[in-house]
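User: quick one, sequence for these tokens?
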């Protein structure tokens, strides 16, 4: 319930004041009667005064006064419909789940740091739809566009380097899948955020990004890792830790390729960020 003129409600403060005056008047009246009438005759005279009736009459007067004040305050019940037009954002988040994301040049690992950053990002969303894409050698839609943020965060936490069975890093496939997944959402309100170390082993991400821009998609890239890079630790079935090797048997060192990621983002009017401090970096994306 609301009131059209709530200032009138201040008048209700008169009620306790009037009650206090009434009680004082009753008490003083009894004292005067005791002063001028002997104690022997007092019960006979006081019996002619109907105190309950006086109290009931005074209570009804107060009730009427209170209702009058409330009516002047113009109480209002019910509700009204108001159309609020909001231009929401459809946001797809693409996460590189290739084995290079196991590198620990960013603690505890590149992939785990990305998961934390995505949670920071989703926590800041307000009514925008969000979805999740995992990609390695190919891309797969892990969570379609939704406002169920808890479901998306759960899908994020389930990501690992075995999510996509096909090895490699194909950023192009993630961009293509994102463009298809946006469907009929409003042009100009489509955004794709790609978390990766930028080591694209197949596809042409810059070319695909230009096609996405024509479809109204802006891409923001977030680089994970360091230019110096690190080895890629993997745990075998026996629990022993080894490092990824190439076909020649040489240990592979994974490095951040921020140059390619800048080109991808700028091709769509977006920009590139390096993932350092999760919350601060994600605030720059919004």
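Assistant:
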């Amino acid at each position: 319930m609301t009131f059209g003129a709530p200032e009138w409600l201040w008048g209700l403060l008169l009620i306790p004041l009037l009650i206090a005056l009434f009680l004082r008047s009753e008490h003083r009246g009894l004292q005067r009667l005791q002063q001028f009438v002997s104690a022997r005759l007092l019960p006979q005279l006081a019996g002619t005064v109907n105190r309950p009736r006086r109290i009931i009459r005074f209570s009804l007067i107060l009730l009427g006064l209170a209702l009058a004040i409330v009516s002047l305050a113009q109480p209002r019940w019910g509700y009204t419909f108001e159309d609020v037009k909001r231009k929401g954002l459809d946001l797809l988040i693409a996460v590189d789940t290739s084995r290079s994301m196991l590198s620990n040049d960013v603690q505890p690992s590149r992939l785990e740091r990305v998961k934390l950053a995505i949670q920071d990002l989703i926590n800041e969303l307000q009514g925008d739809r969000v979805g999740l894409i995992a990609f390695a050698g190919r891309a797969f839609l892990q969570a379609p566009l939704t406002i169920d943020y808890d479901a998306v965060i759960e899908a994020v936490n389930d990501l690992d380097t075995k999510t996509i069975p096909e090895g490699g890093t194909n950023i192009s496939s993630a961009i293509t899948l994102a463009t298809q997944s946006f469907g009929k959402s409003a042009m100009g309100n489509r955004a794709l955020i790609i978390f990766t170390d930028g080591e694209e082993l197949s596809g042409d991400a810059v070319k695909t990004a230009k096609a996405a821009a024509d479809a109204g998609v802006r891409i923001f890239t977030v680089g994970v890792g360091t230019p110096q890079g690190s080895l890629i630790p993997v745990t075998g079935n026996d629990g022993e830790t080894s490092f990824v090797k190439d076909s020649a048997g040489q240990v592979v060192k994974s490095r951040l390729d921020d140059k390619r990621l800048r080109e991808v983002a700028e091709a769509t009017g977006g920009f590139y960020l390096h993932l350092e401090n999760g919350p601060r970096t994600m605030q720059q994306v919004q």
